Amino acid sequence: MEPKVEGSVSLTAALLTSMVSLNISPVCDDQAFELYRLQTALVQQRRVREMIDRDRRLRQYLRRRKAFLMSSVTAVLSIFTTTRNRHVWVRNRSSEDNFWSSVELFDDDEWKAQFRVSRATFDYLLEQVGSAIKRRRTNFRVPIEPKRRLAIALWWFARAGEYRTVSIMFGVGIATVCNIVRQVTSAILERLHQRFLSLPSDQRLDDVMAAFKERCYPQCAGAIGTTHIPVSPVALSRDRPDDYLNERGWHSIILQAVVDHKACFTDVYAGWPGSTSSASVLSCSDLHTKAEDQADGYLFPKEKSVLIEGVEIPVHLIGDTSFPLKPWLMKSYSLKDQLSPEQHRFTHTLSSACSVVDTAFTRLKGRWRCLLKKNDIDASNMSKVVVACCVLHNICEIRGDSFLPEWNTGTVNCSSYLRQPDMQPYDGDTFCPAEVIRKTITYNLLTLLQH
Fold this sequence. Notes:
Blueprint: H1 2-21, H2 26-80, H3 108-115, H4 119-133, H5 146-159, H6 163-170, H7 174-196, H8 202-214, E1 220-230, E2 252-259, E3 265-273, H9 278-283, H10 286-292, E4 306-308, E5 311-313, E6 316-319, E7 329-331, H11 341-353, H12 355-367, H13 379-398, H14 411-417, H15 433-443, H16 445-450
Parallel strand pairs: 1-6, 6-7
Antiparallel strand pairs: 1-2, 2-3, 4-5
Helix pairs in contact: 1-2, 4-5, 4-7, 5-7, 6-7, 7-13, 11-15
């Protein structure tokens, strides 16, 4: 920049000299000096900007060099620094007298009584989700091992105890219990949901249909039903808590589930407010979308349909009168109507086959009693807990981890306090192909069973 500035100044000086030598008028002389003054001001401004840019680049360089030096020092120190107990950050919790310290001494019966699963099922779950709930060791503390994390979550699912009580029993912090329950819930949904909770297909579908046929109902791939799960109004302050009040006057979310002949869940949908009808919940579910998006309106393969008196009877679900009548969803007749003997028999047979839904809900809530208590968890997280419990229920049923009758002890008292709302029949059905299918099944039930 310096040579260029000197050149411009010398050029201006030469111009002025030539003008003087040529005896140019005073007016032109004034214009020349004004031009010189402007050029000088521009040169000064350019120098100021250059100095500011030079200082800015210097400051950036110094900051980067300082950050590099600090990171290098930190990296070197982290290599040579040994693990230390930071009493300011970590609370020393004795593990000698708490519940977790004596868990290894439990026999199989005591283990199952505490965690609602056998030791073998617990080890299987740990193998499946252990890597997802494992935490990295740091210089500040030793992480809680995956085994204890899973045990904390299962104990909370089974008991729904206060976080403070669980923290004392397992020797961890109160906030840690809350975080562990959420982490284990997410791990179960990510690792196990798709594997253990899906609608039947192929050979499994044939087995389910054969089992329901033994229950005297043909062409059935499962029964659908709903139940209410209590939630605390404290956790609904931002979600219009009045919407969650059901007809019994307590706050709840709705669990819609499809159940097979073994009382295992094949499809679940949870989270809608307790004031919502069963038909509305169904219409918003993925199950409804999957069925209605099919070109033929069937939920299961069309090649498994049966032709009776010119009417195609598809493989379908069955449910109570709170659901709408669909080609893929049959329901019983309303007892308020004047029914023929065939309609009475159809209603009785369908209702008997639907009893697997009540069995599944009873075992689900008896094993995982967090679904019987008003938990201070927001509705979205409680929905995840409900689905995770359904997955755990399926794992226990599939592995033959039996449900103990004493787990239902006390649920009667709880149910008397939080009685399930009465079923509200859906009255929006009109004469449609689904009605033709139901009528054909009704008057040809024996023929279908013999098919």
